[in-house]
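Quick one from the shared queue. A colleague (R.T.) flagged Fibronectin type-III domain-containing protein as missing a structural entry in our internal table.

Convert sequence to structure tokens.
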Amino acid sequence: MKRLRFCLVCLLLLMPSIVQAQIIALCDTRLACTSNPSAMAGVDSRVNLTWRGQARIHPELSQTLTSRQGVFVLGNPFSGQRLGSSPTPLMQPLSPARDDRAIEFRVTESLRVPASVSQQAARLGERQVFYVRQFSLEESEPMTGVQVITLQQGVPGRGGSIAEGTEPSVSGVNIQRVSLYFDRGTLTETLRPDERLQATAQINYQGAGLINAIWEVATPASTRGQPLYVPLSQVRQYLGAGRELTLTSPPLPSETAGIHRVRLRFLPPTVIEELPTLGYRVSEGALPRAWVPAINTLPPESTNPLSLKTRFRWQPVAETYVYQLEFYDRWPETTEKESIPLQGSRSGERQPVILNPAPITGQVVTGNRTSASPSRSLLSHLETEKRYYWRLIAINSQGEVVAASLPEVIR
């Protein structure tokens, strides 16, 4: 009996081991899936996807790789908001492996991204959706694959038609210009903690229809690097036969000391060429300095009149986080009680931080630059054949103006 039992054990040890079929990799760094797929927001779109992975199967048995459906998810691919699904199943036969090594597989999918899915994501301020599928082999644990689909903004009057179920009026507005300024008429502000401040958007447009936009703010936690904007409030308004609209933001956050940035971002399919932003600083309680050292500016390259080819130049200022070009429609004055004209003031040594009136437009330049040309957005705020005055201010990482140049004339 003992000998029989010993023989059975030997037979079991000599039998070839059965490899359990399983997926061991899917859309990882080595076997990357589709590169940057994109779909048009608010329009039925077709996206070609490729799913790549690795599986281990029995050397003598064929297997079928299966995925029953795909799911569109917002926010987080595993726990986010579900927007819809693609009921089309995917199946890929896998031939027997030659040995116990893993084999690679590739599955292609022509995916329809419904207009209802992309439109819903765009209305929530999202610029991408996750497309999630679970793949499995027979009698194996499934593995989840995720692809990120970027939402492209549609250009009114171009491309596909508006999909059924969306609002036709959404694409009927052509935004021509957006001007941002604070409720005090300024482009930059310094305020004490908990002091009230709001932003105003002046919008020039053509056509009629519904616009969706979001007031967003970046706080000091991110403005020292790449600003991270968070929603403040949503705007949903119908634009009629008029050609100009003024929107006012809710009160801006002022509890945290440091530099803040604010913008009005339009949701697809509304498109504007440049997204203007405003910056303001919340102090720790002390008043900002009234006078600062002068910046040494050089004559602009390219003579008048002002154009995209004009290049403003200056000597660098130490510890500058950003520079700001400011443009005035008349010779500004100091805000002090005596209101001394700048042409006769301390222009060679020190310059005032705040001028009166406020600049009518401006442009922010990174602190490592020593020259800049005006943007199209800036030029759109200026009239041809008119005299303006420009100056440059230097701002440190705490939002303080540390230097300013004497205003100079330009046409």
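The longest strand covers residues 45-56.
The two ends are 110 Å apart (CA to CA).
Added to the table.
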